Amino acid sequence: MSAEVETSEGVDESEKNPGALEKENHMRMVDLSELLKEGTREAHDRAENTQFVKDFLKGNIKKELFKLATTALYFTYSALEEEMERNKDHPAFAPLYFPMELHRKEALTKDMGYFFGENWEEQVQCSEAAQKYVERIHYIGQNEPELLVAHAYTRYMGDLSGGQVLKKVAQRALKLPSTGEGTQFYLFENVDNAQQFKQLYRARMNALDLNMKTKEKIVEEANKAFEYNMEIFNELDQARSMLATETLKDGFPVHDGKGDMRKCPFYAAEQDKGALEATSCPFRTAMAVLRKPSLQFILATGVALAAGFLAWYYM
Description:
By secondary structure, the chain is an all-alpha fold.
């Protein structure tokens, strides 16, 4: 009733609590892009110093893993763009809706066709860890759409920043066509100037009518995205550990039948220890284990996320 009395008496909000209103206005002036940059710096630093990032920069990536990495990206962007489409008119996201300029699903569909052939959809699946991230994106889109900003900004700005570098690394390392087959994901045909577009995107994002609490939640969500990514790296590390354990127990032959086995570093080390008869080179066992679909997708998702972290590296 008191509120009704105040309204009827024409009491202005600023007259009721000018200090609170001033604080709120100050909070709205804090740029979301700067909050995201500073708020995710630690997670970003951890990510860019992973072995995957270092290897990718050196061009140490195999074609099979790159193919599966593309698969992981396809599932991620399919989920993200589905929720962006759902929320394209939401006031907390509408200004950032740039389907022609940014959306990657169509480009990834072309890459999938190039790598896997006509019936590629029947050949691929999403890894368990990647599925958790996909589910998070769907949850956000359907329950807290204002937090989609965290995922969109992290992904697309990173892609625009490092995409061309990653494209060249992949083409050189995997001997992919210079005409773009297999790397359509990195090609933004409707963005003439990436730097100018990123400035526009940040300006639109900073102009969103969000209070400080919501901005803090967006930064928190961006860090959660990094956490999901790091969980997949942990999953990948576990896969590597499993490979190492199995190879010590299986005792399979060393090589693929090529070259001099005596030149194998594993052979030489075990011979020096006098343990050659009890152990063997992990080559064949590793290849057998890597043929398991579950491990393929774990590795693929790790490579895909490394690409994303590399993109952040060049922002």
